[in-house]
């Protein structure tokens, strides 16, 4: 989120039929089960893929990890995520600040708190910054020079996430100035004597690309000081994200950014072929799909150097990312108009992820501000969240590519000073927490019951009766 914004598939069909047959009973029960109540925070006790979150007091990290043979890398199969043979639909959140607060012993506990609160409403994925370049509490103080204490703070975040069975999307750099970003990289190069004139030189200058590649390598090959697990081998990491909200406005053709994505996707995969990779795009359609430009929130969005379809066809990119910010992209529009936009925006991207791309799509940031000048208040914000979940569920029920959404953003109690108007403090926002929890519970059923490789007949009687028990509660 950034405050200053605007001024091939026949194989899939066969699979889909297979999927539908497999999930038939579950789907029937779920469509009937649309009575789930938004009645406050509830613990998930029937989560098969992700057992109930471990309470802090029970945690003994080395023991947990040794017993944890179910903790495997998330992969993709067609336009779904899978863990082993099971589908993995994502309900998650953003918390960009984890490393920063973990770097100070007096605020470190907030990391644990927010994982605990998020796990209690069934969230399983958290997106956060794997960067802080130059400036306050910098991870990377200057090119390839790291503050070991801050890196240890990120180690803590990763280790703590695992305890709460929370997977992380780590973004590797910011497009915006917050926490350094591409401007800081270009500044470093200027300080080293290069004649660079634009922050977009980040995408083309050899020296700057070299700095970034080094950061990628240092991150992926980091050995976690808490767990001894190398980041590139750690299933706690759901995916790498190249750049938060990348844009290259100096080249509206999109060629410059496209070349950068190619080069960096290859670089990431050459070091870490196992983890998933996404680009970090907001999802704007660009010149490669003129018919889709009308789905953009405005004309400018098609001219920022990104191109949803083309960017995601790059080899090595495993899933599509899209942000949903009706209130900043269409400020002044009514709540109804904004909800309508969000709906068509999501439907277009889900259709393209299935049809044009053949990969899952995650709405990696979605949210609306409830601050003074926004069209939204807490009630209509919850309607928005529910609408996003509803559209995803429509996709999930038919085996579509809508793979999940991550709310922007969740804060722990006492961190309200960081709130940009989008913040949700789960224990204080009972209605919102209830909506999130109800959605998580539905996903648990999809995630644990639709096993592709297990033939219908081979299911254990025990498992079936457990399903019945679960769906009846
Ligand atoms: C965690 O496990 C280790 C090794 O089994 C043990 O020495 C330690 O006392 C345990 N810590 C807690 C808090 O249970
Ligand atoms: C820096 O590059 C710009 C544009 O390429 C050029 O006009 C300028 O003369 C260069 N400055 C120096 C000091 O080389
Ligand atoms: C990590 O490795 C070091 C050195 O081999 C060892 O002393 C330490 O106990 C290990 N920690 C864990 C959590 O496995
Ligand atoms: C929230 O906004 C809606 C209009 O979008 C309005 O009808 C409702 O009364 C508002 N609720 C509160 C609590 O202000």
UniProtKB/TrEMBL annotation:
One of its GO terms (molecular function) is mannan endo-1,4-beta-mannosidase activity. It comes from Panicum miliaceum (Proso millet). Belongs to the glycosyl hydrolase 5 (cellulase A) family. This is mannan endo-1,4-beta-mannosidase. Pfam families: GH5_mannosidase. Keywords: Glycosidase, Hydrolase, Signal. It comes from the Eukaryota. PANTHER family: MANNAN ENDO-1,4-BETA-MANNOSIDASE 6, PTHR31451. GO terms for biological process: polysaccharide catabolic process. Its EC number is 3.2.1.78. The keyword rRNA-binding does not apply.
């Amino acid at each position: 989120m950034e405050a200053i914004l605007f001024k091939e598939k026949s194989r899939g069909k066969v699979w889909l039929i297979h999927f539908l047959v497999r999930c038939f009973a579950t789907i029937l029960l779920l469509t009937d089960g649309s009575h789930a109540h938004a009645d406050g925070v509830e613990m998930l006790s029937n989560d098969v893929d992700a057992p109930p979150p471990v309470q802090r007091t029970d945690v003994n990290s080395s023991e947990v990890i040794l017993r944890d043979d179910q903790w495997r890398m998330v992969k993709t199969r067609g336009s779904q995520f899978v863990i082993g043979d099971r589908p993995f639909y994502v309900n998650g959140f953003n918390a960009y600040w984890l490393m920063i607060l973990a770097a100070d012993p007096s605020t470190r506990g907030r990391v644990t708190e927010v994982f605990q609160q998020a796990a209690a409403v069934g969230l399983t994925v958290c997106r956060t910054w794997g960067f802080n370049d130059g400036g306050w509490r910098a991870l990377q103080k200057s090119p390839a020079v790291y503050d070991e204490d801050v890196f240890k703070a990120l180690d803590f975040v990763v280790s703590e996430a695992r305890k709460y069975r929370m997977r992380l999307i780590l973004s590797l750099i910011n497009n915006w100035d917050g926490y350094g970003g591409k401007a800081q990289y270009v500044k470093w190069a200027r300080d080293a004597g290069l004649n660079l004139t634009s922050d977009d030189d980040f995408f083309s200058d050899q020296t700057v690309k070299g700095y970034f590649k080094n950061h990628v390598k240092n991150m992926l090959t980091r050995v976690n000081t808490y767990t001894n697990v190398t980041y590139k081998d750690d299933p706690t990491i759901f995916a790498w994200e190249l750049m938060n909200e990348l844009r290259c406005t100096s080249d509206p053709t999109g060629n410059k950014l496209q070349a950068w994505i190619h080069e960096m996707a290859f670089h990431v995969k050459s070091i870490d072929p196992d983890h998933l990779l996404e680009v970090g795009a907001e999802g704007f359609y660009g010149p490669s799909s003129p018919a889709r430009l009308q789905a953009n929130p405005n004309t400018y969005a098609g001219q920022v150097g990104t191109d949803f379809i083309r960017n995601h066809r790059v080899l090595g990119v495993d899933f599509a990312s899209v942000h949903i910010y009706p209130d900043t992209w269409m400020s002044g529009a009514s709540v109804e108009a904004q909800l309508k936009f969000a709906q068509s925006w999501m439907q277009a991207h889900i259709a393209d992820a299935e049809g044009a791309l053949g990969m899952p799509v995650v709405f990696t940031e979605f949210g609306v501000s409830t601050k003074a000048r926004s069209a939204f208040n807490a009630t209509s914000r919850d309607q928005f969240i529910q609408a996003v979940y509803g559209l995803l569920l429509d996709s999930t029920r038919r085996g579509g590519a809508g793979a999940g959404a991550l709310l922007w953003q969740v804060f722990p109690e006492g961190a309200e000073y960081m709130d940009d108007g989008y913040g949700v403090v789960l224990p204080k926002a009972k209605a919102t927490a209830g909506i999130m929890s109800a959605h998580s519970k539905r996903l648990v059923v999809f995630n644990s019951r639709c096993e592709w490789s297990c033939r219908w007949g081979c299911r254990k009687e025990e498992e079936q009766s457990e399903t019945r028990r679960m769906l009846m509660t």
